[in-house]
Amino acid sequence: MPLSRRELLLSLVPAKRPNILFCIADDQSHPAGASPAFTRVAANGVLFRNAYSLSPGCAPSRAGLLTGRFPWQLGEAGTHAAGFSRSLVVYPDLLAQAGYHIGITGKGAGPCNFAKDGWPHNPAGPAFNQAKLTPPTKGIQGNDYAANFAQFLDARPANQPFYFWYGCQEPHRAYEPGAGVRAGKKLADAVVPPHLPDNEIVRADLLDYQLEVEHFDTHLGRMLDLLAKKGELENTLVVVTADNGMPFPGAKATMFDPGIHLPLAIQFPAQAKGGRVVDDLVSFADFAPTILEAAGVPVPANMVGHSLLPLLRSGRSGLVEPKLRRRIFSGRERHSHARRDNLGYPARAIREGNFLYVWNMKPDRWPAGDPVANFADIDDGATKSWMMAHRDHPLFERSFGRQPEEMLFDVATDPGCLRNLAANPAHAKRRKALRATLEKELTRHGDPRLLGQGDIWESYPRYSPMRKILGGFVEEGQYNPAFQAKKP
């Protein structure tokens, strides 16, 4: 009799398979404040300085990394709060079929309505969320992530390798105002990114954010300690990152560098020399092939990323595979319900070398959402409120205003993306070349926006609350009939 798919996968994997711990924060641009566990992973492994998300929003970013594909290749799963087709292949399922014990705690794929598409559990894996704690602030969830990891390990059959997704729900807003200061943090110590105003309100907001980043880091540290105690850390691939940028104006939900340029540290003591810093451009599409290759599981041909194992095993720092990793791609569609008729803000980006090129496909729309709904694509918080009350501030238009069709930034000298070089004659050749490459690659990827089917993105339902004030189509959980005719 021919082998079943599971039997075939098991026949191909090595006898000693590594464990995998995948740790992902919710809305974190960089390690802020005290992050000793992240620093520990970087010191024992590799710090990646140029890691890029597939999207500046959580649902498409997570869907892309789970499938190893670009969000614009994923239908509804490539936008926010829609469906997640059961036809999509996610690497946790492949690991389970190959004999791995899998599970998650906290936030997995989403927000998305995976149940309506027939998933028995979140596409990231079955949940382990029973252990609870008393949150240190009102903004922090009551999930005892590390204790749930311990329960997951206790449920593991003897000698079975594991894959665990630690999906911390912090530092997602809302925050408890002033929590950072009350915890002993000093306003003077807050690191204000260049795209944000520098004042006491913003600094206090950043300290509240830092407090939640530290909460993520604390549970990461507890998980590392548990693995060390069990003698499992040496043979565990540990990945630590976030899904998209910090929930502040000009970062999360934007194609600016602070929205998609994310922290990443990976350790794999059994196979990777530690204490290194790698500068290659790394995409979140690389996670799926990396994890599958490490587990000895065949990588599906339609995955677009490249395994990071050669970088980890190289023993080198700096640029290790510059030809293979010349460029990365990212993009967005709808984030929240922020525009009339539930329209999104389609944009695509390419980074090559030090330059980030952004193509805003519908520049007539408001990137942060229609003003009538208070720019809803920017999460509410103290910094947003201050900026909306001070619209004459030089940085207001950068985060809240309409944007030109083309933007070009030298992120090495302008990490806050404050100086758009697209209209600068000195950069005309580079701008044209990046636009041509982006269009060519998006067409090759089958992006509906390049194939005359872009309206399909506007048809997808939103399974989250809708804002009646925006008008037009506001039916939660329903397809917009005005845009279904072009559905491929």
Overall description:
The chain is 27% helix and 13% strand. The protein has two domains: 5-316, Alkaline Phosphatase, subunit A; 328-452, Arylsulfatase, C-terminal domain (2-Layer Sandwich), CATH 3.30.1120. The strands form three sheets. It has a seven-stranded mixed beta sheet, sandwiched between helices. A four-stranded antiparallel beta sheet has the order 11-12-13-14, with helices on one face. The longest helix has 30 residues, at 200-229. It is an alpha/beta fold and 488 residues long. The two termini are 39 Å apart. The model is unreliable at 5-14 (pLDDT under 50). It contains 14 helices and 14 strands. The protein is globular and about 60 Å long.
What labels describe this entry?
7-stranded mixed β-sheet, 2 domains, Alkaline Phosphatase, subunit A, Arylsulfatase, C-terminal domain, 488 residues, single chain, alpha/beta, 4-stranded antiparallel β-sheet
